[in-house]
Amino acid sequence: MHLADHWLNIAYLIAASLFVFGIKGLTKPRTAVRGNQLAALGMLIACVVTLFHREIISYEFIIAGIILGTVIGAIMAVKVQMTSMPQMIALLNGFGGGASFAVATAGYLGGLEGPVALISTGAAVLIGAVTMTGSVVAFAKLQELISGGSIGFAGMKFINALLLLGSLVAIGYLVVEPGNQMVFWALVVAASLLGLMLVLPIGGADMPVVIALLNSYSGVAASAAGFVTGNSALIITGSLVGASGLILTQIMCKAMNRSLTNVLFGVMAEGGVSMSDDEVYQGKVKSSSADEVAMILETAQRVVIVPGFGMAMAQAQHAVRELADTLEKRGAVVEYAIHPVAGRMPGHMNVLLAEAEVSYEKLKDMDTINPTFEQTDVAIVIGANDVTNPMAREDKGSPIYGMPILNVDKARTVVVVKRSLSSGFAGLPNPLFAKDNTLMLFGDGKQAIIDISTALKDA
Amino acid sequence: MDFIAMLTLFVLAIFLGVELITKVPPTLHTPLMSGSNAISGITLVGALIAAGHGDSVLVQVFGFVAVVLATINVVGGFMVTNRMLAMFKRK
Lengths: 459, 91
Known about the structure:
By secondary structure, chain A is of the alpha/beta class. Chain A contains 18 helices and six strands. Chain A has helices at residues 5-25, 29-50, 60-79, 85-109, 115-142, 156-176, 181-199, 207-229, 232-256, 260-264, 277-281, 290-298, 309-313, 317-329, 348-355, 366-369, 391-394, 445-458, and strands spanning 302-307, 333-338, 363-365, 378-382, 413-418, 438-442. In chain A, strands 3-2-1-4-5-6 form a six-stranded parallel sheet. In chain A, helix 12 (290-298) packs across helix 18. Chain B starts with a helix and ends with a helix.
């Protein structure tokens, strides 16, 4: 049985509406689960009605593909650890891009006519393939299969520009001569290479931007695939996702005070003569112990915890929650200060702390928490570095000058839990560590926090 | 559907997306990404049509690949989003 096209389109409209309600649900933690379910219902409707599309005449490949995809997807979703969520998102972005690329390729091989369909196919192949290979590189970096730092060589930008130009020329050529499959495959190869080369030079701390941007690309690719097949559901949904990724990208860039081009081409702002580690740290750093920190915490009324990527690395979120519980039992107020680019993707810290059952009301964003540091007795920085560097506020010559930071140095006492004095991604010394009111607690993040809790309970 | 109609949908949906997404709080940015990932698995609709096409084996093979990838996106995306959001709801 086949459904007429207008019934399909009405079903797609319902699905798209459910996606909109779904995203709307995500604007509040309380309605978010329901929103996600509504979106899933929309997807189910869209897929079920599509099975009755007049062009579908055989179901073997469909059934096999759905079973395989469901098994892989379900296993991934159940097994993934919250600390590995950035890798998971990177992979999902890549699969989305790959799917759009494959749909466009199938459309092209099935025979397409007209400039709109061909240009859209070219766009879907280009963006889809870039998203696919770029996301695989992002995944490999996050999973530490390859070095997380910047990988590149002289002339890389030039080659990237050539690859992009070549891809655009190939798309133009396809419109003139659609039958030339060599040109099509050349486009596939160029776009895949471009994806690899674009993400390889981007270093670890810039990953939030890259993941958000690839998220946006995966949406745009879906939209382009919708232009190929004239499918309203794909066009609407793809542009919703494209917009979402773009906004997150913008938020991330703003939080690092860098332009998108700077991030993409791995440029850091030119700084003046920056101070060496010795000048900043010599004789001023105070190394502390868990017992000493516990003693200070004993009388603290207000404590702010500042998590960074190091907390995820050390899997310390549960230990942090326990310390907060102990402090709260003693009558202190505990809040968490979350910098927008803390971690490796937007919202990374929030998810980790939610996993440790920290109430989301205690997670404060930068603008909310910053004015309160002056009334804070103790700020505990765990695994965060550049986002607390006062040079961003004070040193006009510094490469990170102007980046919005968490003003932890304004707290009465700052405790920094860190393995060593090594610099963060920006490669700069952090004068916070040498301040009079700062105590350094060197060691593994998780163990250090547990030690403080134990000392505090014994007190 | 003609090109202008598609372009209209595209542009209007972007405006809608911007309005909606700016209201999502930073706390939920990760679930937003995985959720929008799942939604972008709507490519599955195009993939199903390609995989069931039956004209040429090569088209079906690419359709099959697309169905697998898009299904991972949909199933993995919605399930992992649900898992994360359940943690936020607990309190």
